[in-house]
Amino acid sequence: MAEEETPKGFDERLKRLEAQRGLSEPEPAQQASKGGLNQGMRAGTDLVGGVLFGIGVGYGLDRWLDTKPWCLIIFFFLGTAAGFLNVYRSLSGYGYGVGYRKDGKTKSNDTPHA
């Protein structure tokens, strides 16, 4: 009987201390509004980051290889495609893992198909 009372007492003390220090979780309405903003900011960052990285690599290769617009154009489109791919993966629930599997939904005996 004493073993059952200990975790309950601990949980109550933990919740009380979290409330005193302001560490309790925000209300569900606040979490939902921040979730959409977080997803939007991540999507924008992924897209802009991919494009800027592609432009930077293309510009650098153009200066190094003296092929003025071609590497910039090619890597601009590659960076844009990579940005859209990252946005798709993050918004559809796929992580950055190999195989395009949803996060937390994989089985240990699953193998990717080529």
TrEMBL record:
Pfam families: ATPase_gene1 (PF09527). Residues 1-19 have a biased composition (Basic and acidic residues). Residues 1-38 are annotated as: Disordered. InterPro entries: ATPase_put (IPR032820). Keywords: Membrane, Transmembrane, Transmembrane helix. The chain crosses the membrane at residues 67-88. This is AtpZ/AtpI family protein. It comes from Lacibacterium aquatile.
